[in-house]
From TrEMBL:
Protein family according to the UniProt entry: Belongs to the binding-protein-dependent transport system permease family. HisMQ subfamily.
Protein's name in the database: General L-amino acid transport system permease protein
Membrane spanning residue stretches: 20-38, 81-110, 131-152, 180-201, 213-235, 255-275, 359-381
UniProtKB keywords: Amino-acid transport, Cell membrane, Membrane, Transmembrane, Transmembrane helix, Transport
Location in the cell: Cell membrane
Xref: SUPFAM superfamilies: MetI-like (SSF161098)
InterPro entries given in the database record: AA_ABC_transptr_permease_3TM, ArtM/GltK/GlnP/TcyL/YhdX-like, MetI-like, MetI-like_sf
One Pfam family in the UniProt entry: BPD_transp_1
GO cellular component term, pick one: ATP-binding cassette (ABC) transporter complex
Any single GO BP term: amino acid transport
Subcellular location, principal: membrane
Domain ABC transmembrane type-1: 86-378
Membrane topology of this protein: Multi-pass membrane protein
Length: 390
């Protein structure tokens, strides 16, 4: 019997070739549109006599920045000024993410508490600040909370902190010659403590007995640190306590009114959404898990720490990413109260140099870089917490 001829599939129906061809067409179309956009932009700029380039970054800035985390003066170039704005954006976003996460988790769990008063306070907190525009919260904190405070000569002392209409002065740290040695030892002690925690946690789960893994790990870290302190003779850093001289506050770290207004507003606003994400993630855990912990005699706090929250975090992390990105992007509202982050500095550079397009490209690139970096980190973190299916 003659062998049957192999059936030939037409190219337009080939499941391997068609997707590749479509992707090539898509890339060509998008590349053509991008080239047309760039070409038309260059023609328009040439007609208006405007040059495109980033050589202006080397020109003298000539303007002052009130709150710079790195060395900056009016004689520095525009590039240095923009770098100061980038650092300020990173500063307020970084601390905003940390504080919003802590407050959001606490408020989210508090809203589910059996304590009626605690649950209602958490609900009121969420309802008020989540339904109020962020810009309005920044204005209220800046103009109604911090600016009405006494002048610096009559600064209010709250413990080691000083509050005035200029902002707050808080204790800060100063390194010494043994700081690097301490950093290396602290990393080693953390690795040892985490190893102890993981070992005891695994043993606790296997035996079903509470052997306090966190307390044991923390005690190990504290014991090693204390022994090191007595051997070296000094701590890793020196704490500088602010002191009021009568006309000013010296020492410590100064946090200006605009920075505090923006940081607290971002923290409070984002924490309300994070609280709801945490509450939703916990409630998404099957009720059978909670009932099982009660049947095994777990306390509510222990059940939340060991059983409920580790499962809820798999649901929480993807949604938290969006809130972190919102904190980074919403930091641009800081220019409304005079805090000079990348947008505030960028607007000044645009007005002085006339290089609007170039500065806008820089600002877009900065936010894109911060957002993509945050997304990559959170995606990695999310992957580590996902269940591995066999």
């Amino acid at each position: 019997m003659a062998s049957q001829k192999k059936r030939i599939v037409p190219l337009w129906r080939n499941k391997k070739i068609v997707p590749i061809v479509l992707q090539i067409i898509f890339v060509l179309v998008m590349g053509t549109l991008l080239w047309i956009l760039i070409h038309n932009t260059r023609i328009g700029l040439n007609r208006m006599g405007i040059q495109f380039g980033f050589d202006f970054l080397n020109l003298r800035a000539g303007f002052n920045i009130n709150e710079a985390m790195i060395d900056y003066g009016t004689n520095d170039p525009y590039g240095r000024a923009i770098l100061v704005g980038i650092v300020s954006t990173l500063r307020v976003s970084f601390f905003g993410i940390i504080l919003a996460t802590i407050i959001g988790v606490v408020v989210g769990i508090a809203k589910m508490s059996n304590n009626w008063l605690l649950s209602k306070v958490a609900s009121i907190y969420i309802d008020i600040f989540r339904n109020t525009p962020l810009l309005l919260q920044i204005f209220i904190l800046n103009f109604a909370v911090f600016l009405p405070l006494p002048v610096i000569q009559e600064a209010i002392k709250v413990g080691p902190f000083y509050l005035s209409n200029r902002g707050a002065v808080i204790p800060w740290f100063s390194g010494n010659e043994n700081t690097w040695i301490w950093l290396i030892l602290i990393v080693i002690y953390l690795v040892i403590s985490i190893s102890i925690f993981n070992f005891l946690m695994k043993k606790e789960i296997e035996e079903g007995k509470n052997i306090h893994p966190f307390l044991s790990a923390f005690s190990t870290f504290a014991f090693l640190s204390i022994i090191t302190f007595f051997i070296i003779g000094v701590g890793p850093v020196s704490v500088i306590i602010p002191d009021h001289t009568g006309t000013a506050v010296t020492g410590g770290a100064s946090l200006t009114t605009p920075f505090l207004s923006v940081l607290l507003a971002l923290t409070i606003f984002a924490s309300t959404y994070i609280a709801e994400i945490v509450r939703g993630g916990i409630q998404a855990v099957p009720k059978g898990q909670t009932e099982a912990t009660k049947a095994l005699g777990f306390k509510s706090a222990t059940a939340m720490r060991l059983v409920i929250f580790p499962q809820a975090i798999r649901i929480i992390i993807p949604q938290m990413t969006s809130q972190y990105l919102n904190i980074i992007k919403n930091s641009s509202l800081a220019m409304a109260v005079g805090f000079q982050e990348i947008v505030g500095v960028g607007n000044t550079v645009m007005n002085q140099s006339g290089r609007t397009l170039e500065v806008i490209i820089i600002m877009i690139s900065v936010y894109l870089f911060f957002s993509l970096t945050t997304s990559l980190f959170m995606n990695y973190f999310n992957k580590k917490f996902q269940l591995v299916e066999r």
